[in-house]
UniProtKB/TrEMBL annotation:
InterPro entries: EcsC (IPR024787). This is EcsC protein family protein. It comes from Hymenobacter mucosus.
Amino acid sequence: MNSSDQDAYAELQDWQRKMQQRPSMLNRLARRLQARLNALLPEKVHAAITTAIKQMVRGVLFGSGYITRRPLADATLQAREVAVRTSVRNYRNTAAAEGAVTGAGGFLLGLADFPLLLGIKLKLLYDVAALYGHDVQDYTERLYLLHIFQLAFSSQHTRNEVYQRLANWETYRHTLPQDVNEFDWRTFQQEYRDYIDLAKMAQLVPVIGAAVGAVANYRLLEQLGTTAMNCYRMRYFNTDSSV
């Protein structure tokens, strides 16, 4: 293992420890607070967000519009990660700009940010998968992306469970349903909504919405990029070879 791979492996181990932590008292309190905040939003807002998430995410499994590049072959881990970091930076900046525009536009444009941001996140995951050499034409690879997404934007309780699936992916993938309707969409949607609501609800407030939208989107894309990198590092080091 060269020095670059050793650094990546050390970062991976630190990240793995965080993913396997038990929910803290603060995590549990935040979960209760989120439930109360959800109750304050009108039902039509909840319905709009849920529908957008469901349709966009299901589109990952069937649509080809997100597929923009061939899997990168015959590259070192270091070369892959240089390209991945560049891609994350570009998508992060795009998301921040989008959040600022929709946040400045008031309540209706603020609502539009949810599906727009979701599309940016999914596009990033497709690019990261290809840069690590994985072919997302494979149905199970697309489900892997959904699990990365779920890991990045879930409570610590759900995160522990999803992490175990990803850590043992080569075994778990053989148990995946052939029918996508059997995927646990309800948990996926609710965890995502609960996670981002605390970060994004202030974006709907006039005056401060633009600043909140830019910062929140920037951080959410940064977190997704970090999660994706470490998930693919797990697969790289588990096979003890490059893709």
